[in-house]
Amino acid sequence: MSLLTVTDLKVSYGGIEALKSISFDVRKGQIVTLIGANGAGKSTTLRAISGLVPVIGGSINFDGREITSLDTSKIVSEGIVMVPEGRKVFPNLSVLENLKIGAYLRTNADEISASIEYVYERFPRLKERHWQMAGTLSGGEQQMLAVGRALMARPKLLMMDEPSLGLAPLVVKDIFRIIHRLRDEGITILLIEQNANAALRAADYGYVLETGRITMEGEGATLLNDPKVRDAYLGHAKGKKSSEPEVK
């Protein structure tokens, strides 16, 4: 069953088409990834779904409802939440204060407290550092905080923009373990990631985006072994073992 259906989506910046009638589905309970080169339109896609950039054509349907014209706060309240590229935590606020900001649309104090404990159970380091200023955390810890802040909004669909950016390989492995755990707990994930190896290994299904158009799609494992995808995005020839750490 599709949770998100994007149909003929068009986005333009200053007369230049960034997205050229792209269509794709995100099925409930899956990790779906969009891969492609810088400038392909991956981040624009997430921003359009979030209501952060205007859509000039096409439609976005989420959980049976048309959301194309909704503003960002209403889209969040519907259950779509984004973990932005570069984490974008509030550096001069504590870990706990950052988490509470993620619950800004919620009003029940007891439920908010329960969500904070939910986040701390999944990210014990955040609990240990709950009064530490977010700007003093390591890159990996800030990424955990960005994910935890998004979880405070109780997403049905968690959109993640480059979660491995700037992180050491071992930390990347931890982040992808977290992504798998969240999927196993029932959160659907739409992932964009320059690390195509890691993204396709994690994904149930994937799409290749090139200059604003979707040119290929398939199961993550299928795309991982496709010669065209390997040559263009994976950095090694077919038959050569990837150096990427496998996430289990």
Structural features:
4-stranded antiparallel β-sheet; Rossmann fold; 248 residues; 6-stranded mixed β-sheet; 10 strands; alpha/beta
CATH class of the domain at 2-89 and 155-234: Alpha Beta
Percent helix, as a range, is 25-40%
Shape descriptor reads globular
The CATH topology label of the domain at 2-89 and 155-234 is Rossmann fold
- Overall strand count: 10
Q: What is the CATH homologous superfamily assignment of the domain at 2-89 and 155-234?
A: P-loop containing nucleotide triphosphate hydrolases
CATH architect. name of the domain at 2-89 and 155-234: 3-Layer(aba) Sandwich
Low-confidence stretches: 237-245
Mean pLDDT: 91
Please give the oligomerization state of what you see. Answer: single chain
Please summarize the sheet with the most strands: 6 strands, mixed
Give the CA-CA distance, first to last residue: 26 Å
Number of helix segments?
A: 10
Strand % is 25-35%
Look at the helices and sheets and give the structural class.
Answer: alpha/beta
Strand order in the largest sheet: 6-7-8-3-9-10
Q: Compute the CA-based radius of gyration.
A: 18 Å
